[in-house]
Design brief:
Elements lengths: L1 E8 L5 H12 L7 E14 L2 E12 L5 H8 L4 E3 L24 E3 L3 H12 L5 E3 L5 H14 L33 H11 L16 H17 L3 E3 L2 E8 L5 E7 L7 E5 L2 E3 L6 H9 L4 E3 L2 E10 H9 L15 E3 L5 E8 L3 E4 L9 E4 L8 E10 L1 H8 L16 H16 L4 E5 H6 L13 E2 L2 E3 L8 H14 L12 E6 L6 E3 L13 E3 L10 H19 L2
Parallel strand pairs: 5-6, 5-11, 6-7, 11-24, 16-20, 19-21
Antiparallel strand pairs: 1-3, 1-4, 2-3, 8-9, 9-10, 12-23, 13-18, 13-22, 14-15, 15-18, 16-17, 19-22
Helix pairs in contact: 3-6, 3-13, 5-13
Length: 556
């Protein structure tokens, strides 16, 4: 096929305009037929408010043998012959059926990593068993809404735990920076579309699903796993993992509900797709002496602006086109050498209480498919290293911290301390503060100048009582710097909410080239919780990688 880049059309264009542009670029005669797929769509706002959609398209001629001659005749510098990578394991590939005497692999967790690992194994006939401490998404949604309405938390089923993982209650962004020579990402996006997502995620430069659609998508994937012979146990938490004398793994699982017995599972292959917030599991694995190391991550706050202010800054005053709510991405290099940046930006979204432990407050961003809340929000976070975290925990602010500088769970304990401080500062509610008051180190007034879009209760507070002062200084410096890029970003009335502490896993479980935990054959750390992914798509891709390794090991 022929790939053409840099095709520009104004917003609101008709499909015929793009087709005509393709024909003129390749200098095709009127009678020469072709078909095409949009590979990418982005926005060019460099001359705002004069905007363009910029397309990359893949063109299929009625006779593929003519591609080279057409390309030579057109002399188009923005066109070339290309071939998309095809993922090895398609729905039509030959199943690698479970051999007699083999136990089905067990997957702990049903976030993107666990679901896509389970989906591939199920399609290949290995009948995986998935266990998840939270609920199916319908019941989970009810638990989450109850928490937002009443403050009563279910520590087993919440924004962090349950079918679909933490990404289910997020913006549902699917963009990733990882390379994809094997075609895994295309496979993941197509799977989402087959499960009910909008087809535009296949070409949008920042593909987005939205919580309301994502809940249906993840349930559809779970249903397919079961239809293909897999099993999924919800409300089931792994409490013990041991190696048997015959070399297999035994899992003891607690099942919630009246008179639910313990679930005992035995297998030679366990996938730990536990997510970045599985703190009790991290502790259990540490006690097993699974090799883990603390890793750098980022912490900070959520900033909220009226969405139309962001749109005017990025699309231009007087933009005459009907455009989707504008996203942004900003970074800044601090004077002390650290980085501060926006993370998980949610156009037209909500700040949500994403806590998973009683007595702690953590926030995240979430949006529905339409992104129509009227406000924009994103995390503004500063990178912290294990060395910095050890210094913070040794300070007077958190005297008596139970971890040492070399502890693998150093970052996890830091997260907990921040969330406990946020809970105290907000008296159990999300602490909220205007940017001007944050700069002045004052709690400020109780009534913001515009309506906060928040899921869960909030309270005026002082976020400088929550975060280390060096982090607060970095956040302030970054926001002021970005006002030169996005007019109004440093508005005194912009709202800050805290604490944003779950940007990524605080640990990495060491694994070898075969993706098995070092020294523990048959144990596969996987996804974001294991420290090998950073979002829905990259976690799903890592789940596929682990499934591929299990399939290779099963071929005997």
């Amino acid at each position: 096929m022929i790939r053409i880049t840099q095709l520009k059309c104004r917003p609101g264009h008709k499909i015929e305009e793009l087709e005509d542009l393709i024909r003129r670029t390749l200098r095709l005669r009127a009678e020469e037929s072709f078909s095409y797929e949009i590979a990418r769509q982005s926005v060019d706002a460099r001359k705002k408010p004069d905007l363009f959609y910029v397309y990359t398209v893949d063109v299929h001629l009625s006779d593929p043998k003519h591609e080279k001659s057409v390309l030579a005749h057109s002399k188009a510098r923005n066109a070339s012959i290309t071939q998309l990578p095809v993922y090895r394991y398609t729905a039509d590939s030959e199943p690698n059926l479970l051999h007699k005497g083999q136990e089905p692999p067990v997957i702990v967790g049903t976030g993107p990593a666990g679901l896509f690992c389970g989906l591939l194994l199920a399609r290949q006939g290995l009948h995986p068993i998935l266990i998840e401490q939270g609920d199916r998404v319908r019941q989970r949604t009810s638990c989450v809404q109850t928490f937002w309405d009443t403050g009563i938390l279910d520590p087993f089923s919440n924004v962090q735990f349950g079918e679909g993982g933490a990404g289910t209650f997020s913006d549902g962004k699917l963009n990733t920076g990882i390379k994809d020579p094997e075609g895994r990402i295309r496979f993941i996006l197509k799977t989402f579309v087959e499960a009910g997502a909008d087809p535009d995620i296949l070409y949008s430069y920042k593909p987005h699903v939205g919580t309301d659609v994502l809940t249906r998508v993840v349930s559809s994937i779970t249903d397919e796993i079961v239809e293909r012979g897999g099993s999924v146990y919800f409300r089931t938490r792994m409490t013990k993992l041991t190696k048997t004398q015959k070399g297999t793994w035994e899992l003891i699982c607690e099942q919630r509900g009246p008179e639910q017995p313990q679930l005992h599972l035995e297998t030679s292959r366990v996938v730990l797709a536990i997510g970045h917030s599985a703190r009790s599991t991290f502790r259990m694995l540490q006690e097993m002496q699974i090799r883990m190391t603390p890793k750098a991550f980022a912490v900070g706050v959520r900033i909220q602006h009226p969405q139309d202010r962001i749109d005017r800054a990025l699309y231009g005053e007087g933009c005459r086109y009907s455009m989707p709510p504008s996203p942004y991405k900003v970074t800044h290099h601090l004077a002390d050498g650290r980085g501060v940046y926006s993370f998980c930006m949610c156009p037209g979204g909500y700040v949500v209480n994403a806590s998973s432990e009683n007595g702690m407050t953590a926030v995240n961003g979430m949006s529905y498919h339409k992104r129509d809340s009227g406000n924009a929000n994103s995390a503004i976070v500063v990178t912290v290293t294990p060395q910095e975290i050890a210094s913070f925990l040794a300070s007077e602010q958190w005297t008596g911290s139970p971890v040492s500088a070399g502890d693998a769970l150093l970052g996890m304990e830091f997260q907990r301390k921040l969330e406990q401080a946020a809970y105290r500062e907000g008296h159990g509610k999300i602490p909220l503060q205007q940017f001007d008051d944050f700069r002045k180190n004052e709690t400020g007034c109780a009534l913001p100048s515009f309506e906060p879009k928040i899921r869960g209760s909030w309270k005026s507070a002082n976020l400088r009582n929550v975060l280390p002062q060096s982090i607060c200084s970095g956040i302030e410096e970054g926001i002021l710097a970005w006002d030169r890029q996005i007019t109004g970003f440093a508005d005194p009335h912009a709202l800050l909410a805290g604490v944003e502490s779950r940007t990524s896993s605080p640990v990495r479980m060491e694994r070898g080239a075969d993706l098995q935990a070092e020294g523990y054959p048959g144990l596969y750390p996987c996804g974001e919780g294991a420290g090998y992914a950073g979002g829905i798509t990259s976690a799903a891709a890592d789940g596929l990688k682990v499934a591929e390794e299990i399939l290779r090991a099963s071929q005997y």
